[in-house]
Amino acid sequence: MHTATDPVIRLDTVAQVMELAERFAPNNLWYVKTMQDVLTFGGEEVKESAVHNLMRLIAEGTSTK
């Protein structure tokens, strides 16, 4: 993801990683760490709803599923 220079590939990769992380996260800590990486490398391609879900999880300690 961090080496992709094509914006379409980068956007698609970010979207797929976010979807898989939300669906198959084994625990909240793994999800938070994975989303941190996605935010770091994905930048502007990260959907606002994913950021909101992450903030809610951190603030409330609730599941995003």
Question: Nutshell version of this structure?
Answer:
This protein has 65 residues and is an all-alpha fold. The chain is built from three helices and no strands. The mean pLDDT is 84.
Q: What does this entry look like structurally?
A:
The model has no long low-confidence stretch (mean pLDDT 84). The chain has 3 helices and no strands. By secondary structure, the protein is mostly helical. The protein has helices at 7-24, 28-42, 48-60. The chain starts with 6 loop residues before the first helix and ends in a 5-residue tail after the last helix.
Rg, please?
12 Å
Between the first and last Cα atoms, what is the distance in angstroms?
Answer: 24 Å
Structural class: mainly alpha
Alpha plus pi helix count: 3
Give structural attributes.
single chain; elongated; 65 residues; 3 helices; mainly alpha
Secondary-structure blueprint:
Layout: H1 7-24, H2 28-42, H3 48-60
Helix pairs in contact: 1-2, 2-3
